[in-house]
Amino acid sequence: MELFFNVLIAVLGGAIRVGTPFLMVSLGECVTEKAGRINLGLEGVLVFSAMSGFGGAYLSGSAWVGVLVGGLSGAALALLHGLVCSLPRVNDIAAGIALMLLGSGLAFYLGKPLIQPQAPQIPALALGEWSSSAQIRSALQVNALFPIGVALAALLAWGFKATRFGLVLRMAGDSSDAARSLGYSVHGIRIAATVIGGFIAGLGGASLSLHYPGSWNEGLSSGQGLIAVALVIFARWSPWRCLGAALLFGGAGALGPALQSVGISSGYHLFNAVPYVLTLAILVWTCSPTRRVQGAPAELGVSL
Question: I want to staple 96 with a disulfide (CB 3.0 to 4.6 A). Which of 10, 11, 41, 101 is the partner?
């Protein structure tokens, strides 16, 4: 029973630690898709912002400066994506793939001098001080960006329903003709949403390099940006559900290390594959011809 409890605590702590980048990227993509645009370049945004955030923290000596630099770097790449997608006859999917390659390539090229140095880390919130167990205290060292992500989820959920900007954003995603008829620039709305989404996703990239795993290397992301796109579909474009889905994916990613921490190392690499298997299962489930995709902005073309 004690072994099960220790594994459960480790998975819970790991869900928050591993799920924080998923939460930030999925919230960013949720904003973008609510406006009727999909950004498959989030993998490039995540990698580039992780490199930029690490570099900003290393050069400034402040982790929070690094977080800000990561967010601004994500916004800059997203701005490029938004401008390109506003051109005539440009496909969002193709532009997103190009952005993914561009962001990853720039990060790998510019980040080579940052592979060895150490940068200041984002502080952790000690939520396990109530316990005398060193293992529990270690598991509940929570990324300080996680409560910021929860606050962002609450802000976005309220903003989509109760603000003029949220209403206009959803209108552009559900009917571009209706938005134009009221005098709004659909391209302007979608560019703004893409930039905001890129900034939030950039915070997730900074979390990767400045908290967990807390260093910069070229294999840092492991496809988390692409997984986040599936996660938004699974969450039905709801910020609160993005929070739950991020914790689910984070817990799946933390399962292997949690079992290893209690001495169960058999099949370790198979447990590391759980998030990717879960992503495939979700894609198959949501793409079933017998199941209607609910909550999708109509302009995305996935509401059948």
Answer: 41
Tens digit of each residue's pLDDT (9 = 90 or more) over 216-271: 988 888 788 888 888 898 888 999 999 998 998 888 877 777 666 666 666 666 77
**pLDDT for 69-79, tens place per residue?**
999 999 999 99
Tokens 């902005």 appear where?
Answer: 297
- In this structure, how many other beta carbons lie within 10 angstroms of the beta carbon of residue 181? 9
Classify burial at 302, counting beta carbons within 10 Å of its beta carbon; exposed 0-12, middle 13-18, buried 19 or more: middle
The helix or strand, by DSSP H or E, that contains position 126, with its residue range, turns out to be: strand 124-126
Cis peptide before 239 (omega within 30 of 0): no
Distances (CA, A) of 18 to 162, 198, 201, 253, 289: 31, 20, 15, 7, 32
CA atoms of 198 and 42, how far apart (whole Å): 8
Spatial contact of 229 and 38, defined as CB atoms under 8 Å apart: yes
| Cβ(172)–Cβ(189) below 8 Å | yes
C-alpha 236/C-alpha 215 separation (Å) is: 33
Question: Is the CB of residue 297 less than 8 Å from the CB of residue 34?
Answer: yes
DSSP secondary structure, 163-204, as one string: SHHHHHHHHHHH-HHHHHHTT--HHHHHHHHHHHHHHHHHHH
Which two tokens mark 155? 């802000």
In angstroms, the Cα distances linking 204 to 28, 53, 208, 286, 297 are 9, 10, 6, 25, 24
Q: What is the pLDDT of residues 165-223, one digit of tens each?
A: 999 999 999 999 999 999 999 999 999 999 999 999 999 999 999 998 888 988 888 78
Helix (H/G/I), strand (E/B), else coil: 124: strand
The first and second tokens of residue 246, run together, are 């991020």
Task: Enumerate residues 6+ apart whose C-beta is below 8 A from 260.
Answer: 268
Residue appearing with tokens 């489930």: 285
